[in-house]
Fold this sequence. Notes:
The complex is a heterodimer of chains A (205) and B (237).
Chain A: H1 4-13, E1 17-21, E2 28-31, H2 36-45, E3 53-61, E4 72-80, E5 85-93, E6 102-104, H3 113-124, E7 127-129, H4 166-169, H5 200-203
Parallel strand pairs in A: 2-5, 6-7
Antiparallel strand pairs in A: 1-2, 3-4, 4-5
Chain B: H1 21-30, E1 35-39, H2 43-51, E2 74-78, H3 86-95, E3 101-105, H4 107-111, E4 132-134, H5 141-157, H6 176-187, H7 193-204, H8 220-231
Parallel strand pairs in B: 1-2, 2-3, 3-4
Amino acid sequence: MSKLVLERLVAKFGSDVLETHSDFGDDTARVSPEIWRAVGEFLRKDPALDFDLFVDLCGVDYPERADTGERVEVVLHLYSIGRRHRVRIKTRVGDQDMERAELESLTSIWSGANWFEREVYDMSGVTFRGHPDLRRILMYPEFVGHPLLKDYPANKTQPLVPYRSEAEAGVPLEKLAPFREDEGMSFPRRGPGHAVTPVADRERD
Amino acid sequence: MSATRTVALDGNESGFATSKLGPLLAWARKYSLFQYPFVTACCGMEFMSVASPRFDVARFGAEAPRFSPRQSDLLWVVGTISQRQAPVLRRIYEQMMDPKWVLAFGTCASCGGFYDNYTTIPGIDKIIPCDVYVPGCPPRPEAVLDGLLLLQDKIASGDRTPGVVQSGVVKPREDPLLTLRKKSDAERPLRDASTKAQAPRASAGSPRATPVVPRKHDDDLPEDLDEEDNDADEGVE
């Protein structure tokens, strides 16, 4: 994979491109959130880059980075149909209370970004300034919180229809947990003040 | 009630039969279930299999789908029900006319399956009454037909108790394999009673959780049938 994309990006934005790598042939750049939209415009309009296909946008929660205001990593994937190259752009926003977890919307550059930004907002709580219609897309409007943030209790439900009582149903409604603790798919309960230890390997990604 | 005589009528002969209204209605209902398929997930593929000619739910009088809940008797809840769909499912159920029945098709509809999280209803019985639960992820068509037959048993006996997991709610049906075996056994010398009772059950492959009453002797069968008749005599003479 040529490093053309990353080189042009660094040449244009300098130290605002915080890190780059091309592991496994995937060109990746992490940029500061302030230039998020400018990077998007540059990638779209520069004739040598010409990223005309919006592929994916998602948010990833790293609670251990909350202290530095880098809690949620927003990951953008792009592809150029004409040039046949790809790039992955990342940025990090938000602190422990998800303050300042906001970015400029990319909807006016790629209209395909519309629903993806709504999904990132719904699941991870990142707001996008300038989005035409920023509301939940997967969960219902009554839902409180953002379920893919790791401090959302994994098995907490917010029913729209109140559950029937066992007296009304006439049968036991409580179900067994699908997996035991030792079966690898249970969710450890995080009490208040539970500190998530940073994993050194996870810092590099 | 105990002695039943079968008469075959020929040509222009005529005759009459007597019954009670309740059992007659139940008999009609259980073989003319109009279904509303509420299909949301991968179980729908198995539902198609059940409905299509290879397994052919039409054999049991339940082949007519009605895509209006107002014309349906049986609500098939096929697949995962998310919290967001709960109001829809609840309203569909409320729009159905009495008498109405609900069958939970597959593990997700029965208990939420492995979706133990923010998005899924852990079993449709949390929001609507459910008559029969068919386990499986997805269930094989045989299991679904088994569940349907259980439901027909419930309809015939007028039993509205939810669920089939409790002992005694639904009696084990007569197993056709056992019946066949019984006929041939009469002509054959007796074998070990325990193997005789277990083997046909295993080959029938019924995956439901209903406790199976082991039948040590062939004489159990007519007794079972008699009891079932007595359960249903709520009708007018």
